[in-house]
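Tokenise the fold.
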Amino acid sequence: MTTNEVSGTQFTEDSRVPEWTIVLAFATVYLVWGSTYLGIKVAIETIPPFYMAAGRFIIAGSILYVIARINGAAAPGRQQWAYTALTGVFLIAGGNGLVSLAETWIDSSMAALITASGPFIMTLFSWWGGVENRPTGRIWLSLAGGFAGVVLLIGSAEGGDSLDFLWGCLLVLVAVVLWTVASIYSKRSTLKIDIWLQSALQMFCGGLACLFIAYGIGEFEDFDISTVSARSWWAFVYLVMMGSLVGFTAYVFLLKHRSPSAVASHAYVNPVVAVILGWLILGETLTLWGLIGSGVILISVVEILRRR
């Protein structure tokens, strides 16, 4: 999961941009972001979830900060630090951190499919926050269908009556809400800041918040870095380099050259990629009713994004 704040970025349908670069960028956003749920699941096998998220985003944020400054971004002031710290805590610690914690109890594919409900919550909160108009009747119908799909997905899952499973699902929903609140706050903000610098500071501040949370919940006490498996290390490196840096770069590139509605299509492609990878690599499965619920969610997301 990277940030929705850039959804206000100006874009132009520039025919001078080679088509293959557009295709490559879409493929990157679709595949890389869809694979991050699997990457998280593998990384937290031997690395505590908030500790892992802290390392991932502090490193990625630091690298992106250097890139932003090299490309001419001015040093951030006090207001910019305060703004990015607040949104970074909600987006990174609240969004990605909670999803990482949730995946200790639920499958990566389940986390991805629940996260796909983000456009439903974004539509409602954007209306309540005065960012968008009241939803139309067709969108209300899509919202109802989407939430019904989430309930069906969770209720039909194997082990769905387990307290740990339900707790994991609830954490993902809370993560989606926190991500949405921060995104809407960002849309309403009039603060001017370079988009690369903004994302770098959000990652860095959010990563620091994850570090404090990891310490607060005792992840430091029993963690021995020598026990981290090779595949967890590879997953961690993949999340830093591909999930946080390459994926975000491709996302911003697309927003500059294609419409936001086209770029938003990742919201219903990423869960499909996550389900396939979870099945192929980790042996994760969905029941028949779970597949039906997933289909209802994705159809609703497509309809909402198309209408918006």
About this structure: Residues 1-12 have pLDDT under 50 and may be disordered.
